[in-house]
Amino acid sequence: MAVLDRKLMRDLARLWAQVLAVALVMACGVGTIVIAVGAYRSLEETRAVFYDRYRFATVFASATRAPLHLKERIAAIPGVSEVEARIVRPVLLDMPGMAEPATGFAVSIPDRGESAVNRLYLRMGRLPEPGRTGEVVVTEPFAEAHRMLPGSTFGALMDGRKRTLTVTGIVLSPEYIYAINSGDMVPDPRRFGVFFMPRAAMAGLFDMDGAFNDVALRTQRGTSLPAVIDATDAILKPYGGSGAFDRTDQISHAFLDNELAQLRAMAAIIPPIFLFVSAFLVNMILSRLIALEREQIGLLKAVGYGRAAIAWHYAKLTLAIAVIGTAIGALAGNWLGRGMTRLYAEFFSFPFLVFRQSLDLYVIAAGICALAALAGAVRAIWMVVALPPAVAMTPPAPTRYRSLLSGASHMVGFFSQLTIMALRHLLRWPVRTLLTAFGTSLSVALLITALFSFDSIDYMIDTIFFQSERQDVTLIFAEARSPGALQAVEALPGVLRAEPFRSTPVILRNGHRERRLAIAGVPEHADLSRILDDDLNALDPPVAGLLISRHVAQLLDLHIGDKAEVELLEKDRRVVAVPVTAIVQNYVGLAVYMHAGALDRLIGDGPRLSGVHASVDPLHIDELYAAVKRTPAIGSIALQDISRVRFRETIGENITVMTTVYVILAVIITFGVIYNSARIQLSERARELASLRVLGFTRAEVSSVLMIELAVIVALAQPLGWLLGYLFAWSVVKGFESDLFRIPFVVDAATYATASLVVLSVAVLSALIVRARIDRLDLIRVLKTRE
Amino acid sequence: MAGHPTLAPGNRPDEDAPGRGGAGSDIRAEPVFTAHGVTKVYRSGEVEVHALRGVDLELYEGEIAVMLGPSGSGKSTLLNIMGGLDRATAGTVRFRDHDLTNASERQLTRYRRDHVGFVFQFYNLIPSLTAWENVALVTEIASDPMTPDEALELVGLKDRMTHFPAQLSGGEQQRVAIARAIAKRPEVLLCDEPTGALDSKTGILVLEALTRINEELKTTLAIITHNAGIRQIAHRVFTFRDGRIAETVTNATRAQPSEVTW
After folding, report:
1. Which CATH architecture has domain B9-29+60-86+114-259?
2. What is the ipTM of this complex?
3. B43 touches chain A (CB under 8 A)
4. How many CA atoms lie within 13 A of A490 on its CB side?
């Protein structure tokens, strides 16, 4: 080993605490790259492979009842390669050992052979025999939630009767990677499942012989999807077609897209923060080291080491720190990435989902980390190169300070000389002071970014479940019913109050902007499911006109008074212009409301009900469940209490994991910045501090000089951190914003306070570690040496 | 240093050298410092360094003691022990009625704060404080200090008060250090190579400041130097060799700082 390399190893060993502090900050950068990009790739590639092998459809459409021969016409649409005409029905399920009814999606599969699209991955067991009624395969999460294996049975309300279905196999479908029931905010596999039955058996049960109500098709690469969608719509229109759509409107696909977008955002935002801070720390440490080794550098030059050799020596030190950071980051990232993938596997059902560990990712992460470190080092190294040997071997000129305010005597009594020392030192290196404060403020900001989710989710839960959707259950009819159905629901046991609603699929359009969504027709004076304005006041639907949610208003650039084009998908695809009368508040889906009577008139088929919201006497809830399980007209049921609990549990779990990670990251940044900053101040000022000790100042008084400096930096960091945290949180809210859901932007005062408290505690702890070194200062050695 | 008041030879408190064992002028009847059998052993790794091997010494009020000797002879170690920066391994060191040998860290800090002034070769000024503020640093915590203005006037730097160390010459910096050391009216001023980093002309100014303080404030001065010429301003000269005082010389006549040859 060359002698200079030995010096390098010893320098690293001597500076181990600072090296480790910087390496940890770098590790956070590398780790977050590995996690975010690794998870993104895992999810994206697994999805692509699953879609491809199991032929996930590209266009979807449904109708009321269409003759099977239309399948050929659809297949003849240019660009369409495969078509599967299916029967898809929501059914109520009676699961063993579960009082409340579950909702199931019954989907038909071909009697023989494999589906042309959306093929099933058979995890266990076998596919149903076409001849035997009552044999089904179920999706894996649903099977797991109910501990079902091939041979298990469960009850389903089909054809007006309760039937017992036998599980023959457990499957996964590319169509239901993320399976969520309408009305739920997170998947609940206990209360929602998908099962598949041979077509013949299903047609018999639902009176769909020679007919289908759902079509999924695959297109050739390069096909124009809008053209296929239009052609499909044209074919299905006479049969109650409710509008074809592509993958972007397919629930499972959209949720996956949303998750991928968030991972992309994480990879783009978080690692740069850490790499920036580590570049700054490397700069701080290396500048100080080079200042201390000034004479050694002069000597090396004097004895004939070239500039490049010396520059390379310090570059190697920097790279060594980067290597340590990369190694820690790669290991931690790999470990956390696997954990994250396991978390994904809970929500997304893939036949396989492994954390992708491609070498290139680590190489890229290591490269970025090394570049960040070198970027931080470049200025310090340049100083080495530029230093003439003769100058290097003489001590540097004393640091020039400027007076804080002007002069001397009038400062007395206001600030002690120790405070003046601290403040002048801060002002002497304003850039460093500000960057240190900025680095610390990033931890405050990260903490706010993590912690504000609790505020937002609390607000969201309160708004949705206690202000807006205050019903206990929502019963959705399998098919639209006449108004008499309301009385039938009111007559069910335990029902205290019932409010009907109608829902109809439309395309809402403003110029070239359009969205497929459902208009909900709601009654006046609703007390259960209420429409709220921004101030959470309940609004009554006007006799005519649309109430649209803020998100829809933004998507379609609609304002109050504008006329929106409504294309009715349910009946005759009429296009009507309806004025927007109010913008309302809403977090889930694309909400548009209308007066129930106005909607009935618009559709023109008389009053119809899609479902009923009801409040229920909790003492009689089990009786209601039992009654619902006997009511074939009910297609699915949503239970607010269970949804809320499940939502809070799931989101709470996710946020807790995320917050823990962010807190660790913030602690590492704070520690890295404050500890290094204090160590460097101590190194620069050891002589001054020793002088103070000699003059008779106590350890506490001497430490106070450094502590005042750190305190000023940490104090400066707080308001900056709050501001950055506010902006980060806002960008997170914007990043989460999708057609599926939005998060309200709420940051409580307590969140700012908690973030600051955490950072203050870590700062105090870091300062105390350095204080212990001040106490051990060797007075004599420090004072007898030339600076 | 035009206008700096010089001291006439006749003004000096006494021309007599203090005798060993307390003889001489009555103002030196009581020793300020008493050291008995002081040894100091440093352990650095596996090596034992015997810095002091049994030193006996007494210093009297108003006395100027110059300590000579090669590097490593123990003079700085003794000065550090006298100043409460270090502790003896064995033996006793007393400052008036303070036992420095068994003093706690806290007591030593208190002792430095109240009784001792230090002057070092490399000044050790606080670069972020002006000359005035460097002195005020001490006057803020001392019990009966002079004002920073008075202290700076004593070293002839009243007009440089608002300058930062970086704006002062080496001699000026050292004089600020002296002003800082004497502002608390210490009973003893310990100087380790006070002129070591200075040229002869500046060195003389520094020595003049020191002797003036000795005369006006009756401060006991212990000066370590490599410059044998400085011995001429001392009452007594101690020569150190191998951790012991090898020779003690009492000056019959003392020279003015301006007469010191460099």
Report:
1. 3-Layer(aba) Sandwich (3.40)
2. 0.74
3. no
4. 9
